[in-house]
Amino acid sequence: MEPQKDDQLGPWLALFCVPKLSLRRSLALLKNFKTPAAVLSANSSKLKECGVSPEARKAIHEYQNQCAANIIAQRVSQSLNWCQQAEDHHIIHFEHDDYPVALKEIAQPPLLLFVMGAPRLLNRPQLAMVGSRSPSFDGKQLAKKFAAEIGHLGLMVTSGLAIGVDGESHRGALDAGFPTVTVMATGIDQIYPKQHVALAQQIRQRGALVTEFPLGQGPRAHSFPQRNRIISGLSLGVLVVEAAIKSGSLITARYALEQNREVFAIPGSIHNPLARGCHRLIRDGAKLVECGQDISDELSLQLTLPLENVADPVVEQCYPEGAVYQQVLEKMGFDPVPMDALVERTELMVTELSAVLTQLTLQGKVEHTERGFVRVFTPEANC
């Protein structure tokens, strides 16, 4: 199989593989040096001034001198070998066209993502679904029901593959015929939990498995909350299906708020301890939802402009949702346009643009293809 053709991947992957170099430090170095290649070619004294650890400096020095036993080169080689093992193995770095635009907005975006499946799905409008690892019978049914409804409304379900609400949400989407995305808290080659190996394979075939963690890394306690920021970061909002007061899913909800995403919660019985986390979220301002349409309506309402803001009443007849919809269609044209290009053209936040594209897709005015979003020709397109 031909190797992945990406001239920029090497430096990004090498920076990712530097031992004892945290993501926070890597991002700070990139802010200072501008490119991964510049970081990797910096002298040891300059790196020391930037707070780089002795072990990391030693590894970079050995990498610069092409030492045979250099750990960075070994890790890079291992990752590239994995990438070449199957056509659906991908490594997506920060500047790659398939890197999710939404993730670039969060405080600490991953340097790169390992993906099994279809990376283009990562730029589709998504809704995160999270909740208890030990849900009630009703909780399991609600997760499946909402996942199917959300798919029919044009949103893709994103979750974390855990036992409980995560798994039921993925199954609900797949059973209804929709793709789904799993964000893993392990290396891409370490499916966890083992009970979900078969489910992960289905997701890989019809959606995507994603992780920021290196090959071979198993489950670690700190990795799960770290993973949760990506689940919320990829999404327009987070739906908490069923959660106890100390549920880890509330961490995802907190990340969503920090990332300016919407938080939704399903209420339950006051006698159900697994509803208390949702009730607290609702008291704190989360949107109470009873069906998938509630979520779609809320995301659309954010973008609806007051009628007086629309200058031309003829435009309003063609696009009753407001001028922002006309703007997106005009910037799109009838050739496929990638998500990041649309963000640049429209100057909209990715969350706003994703919601607009969802509504236009439902109305049959826009289609999503492998090359990007394309305007559908209709008689009213000439309005």
Describe this structure in a few short sentences:
The chain has about 375 residues and is an alpha/beta fold. It is built from 17 helices and eleven strands.
Assign the CATH architecture of the largest domain: 3-Layer(aba) Sandwich
How much helical structure, as a percent, in the residues?
A: 40-55%
Radius of gyration: 22 Å
The N- and C-terminal alpha carbons lie at a distance of 49 Å
The overall pLDDT average reads 87
Count of alpha and pi helical runs: 17
Overall strand count: 11
CATH class categorisation of the largest domain:
Alpha Beta
- Tell me, briefly, the overall form: globular
SSE pattern, N- to C-terminal: HHHHHHEEEHEHEHEHEHEHEHHHHHEE
Structural class: alpha/beta
Q: What can be said about the biggest beta sheet? A: 9 strands, mixed
Strand content: 5-15%
List segments where confidence is low: pLDDT < 50 over at least 5 consecutive residues: 301-321, 379-383
Number of domains: 3
